[in-house]
Design goal:
556 residues, transport, mainly alpha, membrane, Na/solute_symporter
Length: 556
Amino acid sequence: MTVPLQAEALDISFKLVPAIIVFLMMASFLVIGYVFKVADTEGMWVAGRGIGNIENGMAIGANWMSAASYLGLAGLVALSGFYGLAFIVGWTTGYFVLLIFLAAQMRRFGKYTAPDFVGDRFNSPTARALAAFTTLLIAYVYSVGQARGMGLVGQYVFGLDIIPMIVVMMAITVGYLALSGMLGATKNMAVQYTILIVAFLAGVYVVGFSQGYSTILPQVEYGALIADLGREFSAPFVNQPFYLWIATAFSLIVGTCGLPHVLVRFYTVRSERVARWSCVWGLFFILLLYWASPAMAAFGVDLFEATTDASAYAAEGGMSGAEGDVIVVLAAQFANLPTWFVGLVAAGAMAAAIATTAGLFITASSAVAHDIYTELINPDATQRQQVLIGRGTIIGMGALVTVTAFNPPALIGELVAYAFSLAGVVLFPMFFLGLWWENTNRQGALAGMVLGLLIWITSIINSVLPSYIGALDTIAGEGGALVPIYAQYVPPIGAALIGTPVVFIVTIAVSLATPEPPLETKKMVRQCHSPEPMGQQETAADVVGDSTNGGTPADD
């Protein structure tokens, strides 16, 4: 087994007060999970559809503020300069698309999961299975970055090697998730968001003020550092093709709108109005961290150079990828802040990673227990059987993610971007067309999803697997890709720029060339845009069924 890259500049030793902070935080997550434990599918998958807009907004923020945002985003800016800003632009803009086109409509459709929507909207068990497989793949790739972040930060607090830290942190996360389900996870996410945002903003303000970088608004004042850090913050951008910047930002925008663990948050609320407002609140809570992240990266880069007397520019043998991934913690450490305070910043990173892992694992478990086992294998499954299958999936997924995180193929932020690219090229076209074009049919959806999966998988095989498989690495040579021209225009991190429009075109073309979907399906789509309010537990299918029995049809 390859030993993962360590963050050499990180003070890896046991620290009592930070350890107590992390222990109390983890214990609180377990207690909340136990208090809000569930035994039925409604609570397991959608939290009883009773979550309010501010609480759901905080859950969206926590769900979103993963290790990739808390740690990886600043690391990408620190290591890649202005190219790293593509991640801020993409991850933020995606929420505006969600707010306008998907949030309320998804809530009105009113299912349990993203594969549930795909299967019912396109009247296809095969489409459901493809969506469930994609959901599992997204959860797996995305969670590896979170496990990596937990391990790196755990090193600082407990002084152990990264591998046992990954194992311990993932074991605790899996334990409370298997117990609590979506209801407990949502309650925990509100707490986790509070912890992570307080820790991150405290770090930015205290580091900036104590080192003379800023006074009252570090989010803006860090700009004075640009003159001193011009090479680190511009040269990497110059060395990255502008096409890659556009491809990355686009993939992250559409990927945001295709992530199952994000869209399921709109199934947990009381109404479509709450869905819209929870999206607005979520965007506000996300803004608080994203606005400050480039400042923390700038502070960390400058302090790294001052402390280590070496260039932070990775191309010159300076900051390693592992050190970039923990630049937020390193900045607090290099600023000679009290150990307990650095431990608080580290605890925020753990809260961020755990919150996102919770959302990912819940969506993965629902994909297996509800969409595969119940809908495709055993339609007579009891609620107890479904919950047991879901909990077993969480445990199995946790084990697989843990092992993979020992030797991940990329930085935390890049790993997460791979998952976004997959969501954007496979699921986003199905969600958008499924809700906004009633003539999208089963054949079109199947053609589009299969093509999207092929585009993404070939991109991963072409550019990522050679670093893992010796035979492929030999073929790839110095460029690191089997087919360099394909890697240039369809990179794993930005495959959606080419892939998503192609999937849209193929889905539409095949739908036009084949029979239209049933009238009842069209009515469900129209119901998703109806101004008439719906009940808390009501779905578009319920309304259409009532209209068939003499009620008011959705398209009247």
